[in-house]
Design a protein that fits this description.
- The chain is α/β, with parallel strands linked by helices.
- It has a single domain (about 1-240), classed as 3-Layer(aba) Sandwich (Rossmann fold).
- The protein is about 35% helix and about 30% strand.
- The protein contains eight helices and twelve strands.
- Helix 4 crosses helix 5 (about 150-160) and helix 5 (about 150-160) packs parallel to helix 6.
- It starts with a strand and ends in a 5-residue tail after the last helix.
C-alpha cells in the first residue's frame, strides 16, 4: 500500500522529516503521535504532495509505484485522502456541488460513468443518515459558518463518499466533543476492511480507544523513535513523550 523509504523533507530549507521510513500494508491502521512540531502533520503534507514541502531525498511509493513527483490531484485519484486538521471555508461553493464533483472525478479516473444528481442525492443522504447529519448540511457553502465539529464531520463525509484506499486523518479529533468524536470514529470503522488502510495523526489516545490501531508510532525531530501496539498510546497518555 504505502512505503516511505528514508524520506528527507524540508520547508524553506528547514529539515522537517529526516531519514523517515514507514510501511503500511493493506488493511492496517497506523497511529502517529508526538509533541507539537515533531513532524506529524508534515508527514501528511508530504504524502499528499503539498508543494510547500520539498522532498530532498528518499521515496514515497503507493501501490508499488513511486509518487514523489505526482501532483496532489494525481495522488488523490490514486486513492490517497487527507482529512485536514483545519478544513478551509469555500464561500459560494455549494457542498453538494463539491462532493458530487469529487466523486465524479474519481469515477471518471476509474473509467466509470458519472453519477447523476438524483442518484447522488440518494447516496449522500444515506451516508448522512449513518452520521446523524441533517439534510441541510449539504446545501450550505463548503464549511462556511460551520462549527469546528461540523467541519470535521464534513471531512469524514467526504471520506465515506470517496472510499479512498489510504485515509489520512490529521488530528481530526482535535477540539471535538464526545458525540462528534464517536461520529468520526464510526466513519473510520465503517470503512475499515482488509484492503483499506488508515494513518491516524493525533495527540491523544481517546480516538484510538474507539478505532484501535494495529500500530502506534512516536515521532520526534522528524523521525520515528518508537513503535508499538495500541498499549503504547496508553503509556504515552500516562507518561507523556519525554520518557522516550
Amino acid at each position: 500500500m504505502l512505503e516511505i523509504e528514508k524520506l528527507k523533507v524540508s520547508v524553506e530549507n528547514k529539515i522537517i522529516l529526516n531519514d523517515f521510513s514507514l510501511k503500511i500494508k493493506p488493511g492496517e491502521v497506523h497511529a502517529v503521535m508526538g509533541k507539537n512540531g515533531a513532524g506529524k502533520s508534515s508527514l501528511a503534507q508530504a504524502i499528499i504532495g503539498n508543494s510547500n514541502y520539498s522532498i530532498d531525498s528518499g521515496k514515497i511509493k503507493f501501490d508499488g509505484s513511486l509518487i514523489n513527483d505526482l501532483e496532489i490531484n494525481e495522488r488523490a485519484l490514486l486513492g490517497i485522502f487527507l482529512a485536514f486538521q483545519y478544513p478551509i471555508e469555500i464561500p459560494g461553493v455549494n457542498n453538494t456541488y463539491l462532493l458530487r464533483s469529487a466523486l465524479n472525478a474519481k469515477l471518471k479516473s476509474e473509467g466509470k460513468d458519472e453519477i447523476d444528481s438524483f442518484d447522488f442525492l440518494k447516496l449522500i443522504k444515506s451516508l448522512m443518515n449513518k452520521m446523524n447529519i441533517s439534510d441541510e448540511f449539504i446545501h450550505r457553502s463548503v464549511n462556511e459558518g460551520f462549527s469546528g465539529g461540523e467541519k470535521k464531520k464534513n471531512e469524514v463525509l467526504q471520506m465515506l463518499l470517496l472510499e479512498p484506499k489510504l485515509c489520512i486523518l490529521d488530528e481530526t479529533d482535535s477540539g471535538l466533543d464526545v458525540d462528534a468524536l464517536k461520529i468520526v470514529s464510526n466513519g473510520v470503522n465503517e470503512l475499515r476492511d482488509s484492503e483499506r488502510s488508515f494513518l491516524i495523526i493525533t495527540h491523544y489516545k481517546r480516538l484510538l480507544e474507539l478505532i484501535k490501531p494495529d500500530f502506534v508510532h512516536v515521532i520526534a525531530n522528524g523521525s520515528i523513535v518508537r513503535t508499538g501496539n495500541a498499549t503504547l498510546a496508553d503509556e504515552l497518555d500516562k507518561k507523556g513523550f519525554d520518557w522516550i
